[in-house]
Amino acid sequence: ILMQSPLSAGGWSPLDSDHYQWLQVDLGSRKQVSAIATQGRYSSSDWTTRYRLLYSDTGRNWKPYHQDGNIWAFSGNSNSESVVRHELQQGIVARFLRLIPLAWSEEGRIGLRIEIYGCSYWADVINFDGQGVISYRFKVKKMKIIKDVIALRFKTSESEGVILHGEGQQGDYITLELRKAKLLFNQYGSILGHTSVTTGSLLDDNHWHSVVIERYRRNVNFTLDRHTQHFRTNGEFDYLDLDYELTFGGMPYSGKPVGGGRKNFKGCMESINYNGDNITDLARRKKLDTSSFRNLSFSCVETHTFPVFFNASSFLQLPGRASHNMVSVGFQFRTWNPDGLLLFSNLDEGTLEISLLDGKILKGCTLNLTITMVSSSGLNDGQWHAVRLVAKENFAMLTVDGEETSAVRSTSPLSINTGRTYHLGGYFLQTLFPPSQHTFQGCMQAILVDDQPADLHAVEKGTVGAFENVSLDMCAIIDRCMPNHCEHGGRCKQTWESFSCTCDGTGYSGATCHTSVYEPSCEAYKHIGKSSDSYWIDPDGSGPLGPFKVNCNMTEDNVWTTVVNNLAPKTAITGSSRERRTVLQVNYSASMEQVTAITTSAEYCEQQIAYSCRMSRLLNTPDGTPFTWWVGRGSEKHLYWGGSGPGIKKCACGIDRNCTDPKYDCNCDADSRQWREDSGLLVYKEHLPVSQVAVGDTNRPGSEAKLTVGPLRCHGDSNSSVLYSPLVPTTQTCLQAIFFFKSASYFFVEVLKGDLYRCFCLCFPSAPETVSFSFDVGNGPVDLTVHSAAPLNDDQWHQVMAERNVKEAVLLLDQTYRTSRPAPAQGHTRLELFSQLYVGAAGGQRGFLGCIRALRMNGITLDLEERAKVTPGVEPGCQGHCTSFGMYCRNGGKCMERYNGYLCDCTATAYDGPFCTRDVGGFFEAGTLVKYNFLPEVVAGASKDSKALTKQLTPHEVNLTKEELAFSFSTSSAPAVLVYISSKTQDYMAVVLKQNGKSCTGMSILVFISKILLNSYTEKTGFVDPVIIERYNTPGFIGCLSRVQFNRAAPLKSALRAATQAAATGKLVESNCGASPLTIPPMSAATDPWHLDNTGESLHHRLPHFNRDSAIIGGIIAVVIFTILCTLVFLIRYMFRHKGTYHTNEAKGSGESAAESADTAIIGTDNPETIDESKKEWFI
């Protein structure tokens, strides 16, 4: 009684403060307990800080209170006066309560005052003896049952037994039974209607369990001890065709073969209700047939088992008959561990040991005789297994579950002389021959020593034997795999203290198989640099949809996702009419839910559908009902055809007004004897994919039709959104949040926060190099932090994955930096979310500055974009893929931002493909020529208002300071001109192939030329005039050229793509010429003879020495034209204000785009005085 009562003085305080003390309360009768409160002993230093609660109906066979899958330890008091009250998450029904102190005051001793809260409880109880059954007969025979509500409570110590059964003459039946201490629901209806669902475990613990079955048509809610499974039964009918009765407690005596020799239920049931009828009350009032009972009892007959619970530091010592020539021991055990010591005893000569090895081997040893049994199934499955060992002179026999494995005779005389004691569940003493195992975690009962039952009541009182850390009259076994916390089909394995998940072959990873190992879309595969291929995708990530395989096409600007179907092209259809249409089922390589996930997240989808016909009409009918229609998503019928849209009963030709017969809107509706076709694309993605097509006009003589339904093709991924979304109230054992963020801000604050009931979850970047994840599930806050090698405020995308499940908490940054924390032994396994989710900031804190996209919570992409449109300070459309993924655009390809991805623009390169990696080349025959006219480049920095903006610059006004030329070629003929670049002046560049197979140019002997200055030449060639070019151009180049790139122009690619500035003479065939990717590194400054630095050294000091022959020719030419130059010099100085400078009027027409180099910007300036006078032409 607590302090609030006048009788509150005093309290319970045992003489010894140790872990073997307990306080027991008898409530007088069974009560429904909802809360418990504690207080320390009055006016003292004695209180209890932690305790455990046990309950029982009889004062025996105690059961510990469970919460969230654990044996719960309640927090107690911190002083003697305050009251600590706990509401029981799961109310219990019991008469006896027992409190076990686990920790107490360091200043005093165990002290306790308690108060129990609850209400009275009463229920009709029926004891089933394993023979009798209760028959509930329907008012009408052969009931067609559409709805069932069945509720009952049961307890038993048997692992097998039929609880409920009903069957019909047509073969329909429904059964609820125990099988291996699990609850099995079986239902069978006609035509592929078998459904079997299993739930629960360890139901033979002789404690009450509650069952509720709610069935409406084919939808079933199956609830056991508040754990509900929702499923849909198989079959085509919504009702069960049963005979006139249901039986409770077993099979009827006139049962059909479906019974299969199953055992009847043995134990107790209470509160049996079927569709509102109280079966137990009707049986008590003798309104039901109970004639099969020999002695019907309305009180529960208790069993007399006395279980013992062992942990890793426990043992139970029992006395035995000393100096006896025979050993006879037996017991039942249950465990999850594969190894353990079950029994050990020191004999006068040798030892006796029974051990469990690897879960399947049970070994018994006596002296030099070893008996080993290998079980066909695991003995560590949590079920009760009976062991019996008998050993005497020259004979030993080990029996498990009643199966005799062997009767072994020793080769030498075997003499047994027993010791005084037997140790069960553990042995920690020093001995000459120690056991192979030392501990056991599990339960034992029905212990026999020397053929006599062990008196465990005397052991509990301390008058017989001894024990250490043993819980008597209780088996605290827990099935940690029921319910199965391993998601997505992961296999659960457990030991006594923990469980683990095997995720092999599921497509998921993590401690609970929660995280998908596949990307969510084809767009995501492109982001990581993948090319076109077939890939497994998982659109909802950790959601319920499994991964599936699709084809990803990345050769176009859009990334196409293709899902194929099983309908063969041009499938023939005959014999259909409007009254009896032929329905063609279209099945896809993925389930309809998976395909729907693609269409929902895509920006655009299409599906080709074609109807080839001869005297088979498609849509037109006199009454307006089409002959043929198709069924899409959601089993909705659609009356339009490909190329048209919803609500328009036309085909593509009807939309375009080009049908063969203008009186009809479809080609096939003309009912022609010639083959016609109506085809087009279905693009309304909310209706896709096509799941069925019903054809209705192929039954007339000569009528034929062929149907083609193409694959579903979609592109775009709309799973990118920003900022805020309300979170639907939910209770989850696992919460996973995945998102991308980028920021250039130094200060990072809360990014993601959800206020929870009794727990909260918070994820926020806390410093430029760190990301933190915090949560509280009822046992204090937990913080996880990962550190990046570089600051995260680098304006690049970073991915964060935060997950908390029943096994661990994980924080992962950029798929590289990971930290985890195992879940505590006791805590709330479910996150209870009942508030809104805030993204960016919460609680008045400083907001996040940057971008967030692709936020997923447990596989569900939150559509935050719409919220961003109405949230002040937030803008939708967070872009920036090129920052992180632009590196995949090769060979000068330009990364172009798109809303949900990026695009590599290869226009200005000599390459093609999604990543600008595919060579573009052509095969040249004799006489084939590609001519490319250079367009003037727009100069940066010019005003948009310039009058010269629209002025077309002439080629001679464009002066470049350097050229970059690269190409690949393959030929077997020479000589040939490979590349010739001309101008309005005498400036030119040529690459020719000599007769000896060596190339020569007017600039360099290298085929790959970079950083070349005009009007310079090499040591080898000197001046190349048109006569020499004419000589090398006969008969012309024959072979392959590819990757032709000159500055920012790709002449050959432009010609092959029919660009306006490029034209081909002769036959030019596109080919990559077998070229391999370019691997020549750029020339270093130390080895480049044309490298310019900023030292201001004159250009003529850097030029190489002239070839002697070239110098003589140049001198003669100089003398001839010297007089002409002198005459013209006055005119040149008069026309140009700055002699020898690169003066141009480009600036007047610029402003549309940025300049490509600093030189171009200088040329384009409006102020001529800023032009560098050091840039002059050198005439030789």
Q: Give Rg in angstroms.
A: 44 Å
Share of helical residues: under 10%
How far is the first residue's CA from the last residue's CA? 116 Å
Question: In what range is the share of β-strand residues?
Answer: 35-45%
Mean pLDDT: 77
Poorly predicted ranges:
255-259, 720-730, 746-751, 755-761, 936-959, 999-1024, 1076-1108, 1137-1180
Largest sheet: 8 strands, antiparallel
Give the helix tally: 11
Secondary-structure class? mainly beta
Task: Provide keyphrases for this structure.
elongated, 79 strands, 8-stranded antiparallel β-sheet, mainly beta, 8% helix, 11 helices, 1180 residues, disordered C terminus
What report would you give on this structure?
There is one protein chain. By secondary structure, this protein is mainly β. Helix content is 8%, strand content 38%. The strands form 18 sheets. Strands 24, 26, 31, 32, 33, 35, 36 and 38 form an eight-stranded antiparallel β-sheet that branches. Strands 9, 12, 17, 18, 19, 22 and 23 form a seven-stranded antiparallel β-sheet that branches. Strands 30-29-28-27-34-25-37 form a seven-stranded antiparallel β-sheet, with no helix packed on it. The longest helix has 28 residues, at 1108-1135.
Please give the structural blueprint.
Elements: E1 23-39, E2 48-56, E3 63-64, E4 66-67, E5 70-71, E6 73-75, E7 84-104, E8 113-120, E9 125-129, E10 134-137, E11 144-145, E12 147-155, E13 161-167, E14 173-179, E15 182-189, E16 193-199, E17 209-216, E18 219-224, E19 227-232, E20 240-241, E21 245-248, E22 266-274, E23 277-278, H1 279-284, E24 308-310, E25 315-319, E26 327-334, E27 340-346, E28 351-357, E29 361-366, E30 369-374, E31 385-392, E32 395-400, E33 403-408, E34 421-424, E35 442-449, E36 452-453, H2 456-461, E37 466-468, E38 471-472, E39 491-494, E40 499-502, E41 508-509, E42 515-516, H3 522-527, E43 533-537, E44 548-553, E45 560-563, E46 571-573, E47 582-585, H4 592-601, E48 604-614, E49 629-631, E50 637-638, H5 652-656, E51 676-682, E52 692-695, E53 704-715, E54 730-732, E55 735-742, E56 752-756, E57 760-767, E58 770-776, E59 781-787, E60 798-804, E61 808-813, E62 817-822, E63 831-839, E64 851-857, E65 860-861, H6 865-869, H7 881-885, E66 894-898, E67 901-905, E68 911-912, E69 918-919, E70 921-924, E71 929-932, E72 963-971, E73 976-981, ...
Antiparallel strand pairs: 1-7, 1-8, 2-3, 2-6, 2-7, 4-5, 9-22, 10-21, 11-20, 12-17, 12-22, 13-14, 13-21, 14-15, 15-16, 17-18, 18-19, 22-23, 24-35, 24-38, 25-34, 25-37, 26-31, 26-35, 27-28, 27-34, 28-29, 29-30, 31-32, 32-33, 35-36, 39-40, 41-42, 43-44, 44-45, 45-53, 46-53, 47-52, 48-51, 48-53, ...
